[in-house]
């Protein structure tokens, strides 16, 4: 069906393409737009956070004045793409149509309007503007200590991924895990492409469990933070993937550590691998629960993943008791494991209590908010773990094959 609801100029141009049957009447459009409330919502969002940026402020005021001059059906339907001013690039061509010879017909009275059109066009091309927490729909309200600089619902994956390069409350969250994601892909590629003489296939297989966990965790996380403002359904789906990623990273981290720590002891190695697999699977199942992502369950989420990581205390204690503390510190990288655990736990606590923005609301809207600090701690912990398991593997492999128990006796 023809789309004839944007501008008067466009409607004139489109006459040959659209039949009267296709085109809704002005009265119908007005009724639809008024009913949707988009016009008022959009105006409000456009003008909400203008204090952040003077240029944006000027543009927004002029845009608003221009919108006020337009008939309601044009102004409202201009924003019909998203619930809150989500305007896609495909509008670019439509707008350009307003600047061709047709406008000359309007002559002098249109000059001031031209200026407003140009500014409106620039704002249009920018696509959207950040909004105040109060103006977010309920499903986008996660952290009420972050006051300004939120993305509105964008309703487009293209717009979401473009927002990676703009400044808003999620910019830091996206980049911290995007850079970690790229770094671990590079490390994994380097490690797995070493010649067999240098790194055996068994080592590659065992380390792959960790690489897969780290890459999926960081990849799911940066994708979630990029697209969660798309729509409620998409946001919820990627939120679950984000939580799954944390469980997968924890499970993947255990594999090489258990493999090398209990290198010659098959039973505990298999038992502990089965334990982390079961606990990780339970965490993933719990993450699938719709309510798990709600803000009020933030401490529960932190608790579930801290508990999953802390289950590593059991095999660690087993190792210390059977091999001795000296051995554990020097040959099982216990120090690095403890450092990793501290980073994860401190990061999860910062995430749960939302400090510093809880103490200074509105001061960490863009940078250094608790979630970014948590992200940095996760990446740091993953690097520490990689270093730790590399040391254990180097030590264990320098010992050669396991001595059969009968010979030990
Ligand atoms: Zn995150």
UniProtKB/TrEMBL annotation:
A Pfam family that the UniProt record links to this protein: HlyIII
Membrane topology: Multi-pass membrane protein
Record's protein name: Adiponectin receptor protein
Binding-site list for Zn(2+): 225, 371, 375
Molecular function, one GO term: signaling receptor activity
Annotated GO CC locations: plasma membrane
One BP term from GO: adiponectin-activated signaling pathway
Subcellular location: Membrane
Keywords for the protein's UniProt record, in alphabetical order: Membrane, Metal-binding, Transmembrane, Transmembrane helix, Zinc
Similarity comment text for this entry: Belongs to the ADIPOR family.
Database matches in InterPro entries: AdipoR/HlyIII-related
Record-annotated membrane-spanning stretches: 174-193, 205-229, 241-259, 271-290, 302-321, 333-353, 373-390
